[in-house]
Amino acid sequence: MEQLAGFFNSNYHLITIVILSVFLGIEVISRVPAVLHTPLMSGANAIHGVVIIGAIIVMGEAKEGDFLSLGLGFLAVLLGTLNVVGGFVVTDRMLEMFGKKKKK
Questions:
Q1: What span, in angstroms and rounded, lies between the C-alpha atoms of 15 and 97?
Q2: Is 74 helix (H, G, I), strand (E, B) or coil?
Q3: Contact 103/85 with Cβ under 8 angstroms?
């Protein structure tokens, strides 16, 4: 318990920033119109490509035989790729909704 209290005492400024960021994020998202939520979230998914780069770096720096790092890195690359592709697919579908209708 003393270690936990020591951690909070030494990092209280970082914890405060995280808590304030959560409240700020909730406030900003609540002011976005409902029509823009899907494009906003799909764009945010596409930005998460940074996760893929970080996972590749983790896998590249893993020591030989460190299967935990390699497995978690592979899982992060796989899920990050799905997130990015899904973001682009949803964005493309949303943009098609605002395009001109094709005549038959």
A1: 42
A2: helix
A3: no
Q: Hey, what are 99's tokens?
A: 């395009």
Q: How far apart are CA 33 and CA 40, in angstroms?
A: 10
Give me the tens of pLDDT residue by residue for the chain, a chain 104 residues long. Answer: 888 889 888 989 999 999 999 999 888 878 877 767 666 776 677 677 888 888 888 888 888 888 888 898 899 899 988 888 887 887 777 777 777 777 66
pTM, full prediction: 0.56
The amino acid that residue 55 corresponds to is: A
Identify the burial level of 42 via C-beta atoms within 10 angstroms of its C-beta, where 0-12 means exposed, 13-18 middle and 19 or more buried: buried
As given in the structure block, the two tokens for residue 90 are 């949803």
Distance CA 80, CA 88 (A): 13
- Closest of 103, 90, 82, 74 to residue 37, by C-alpha: 90
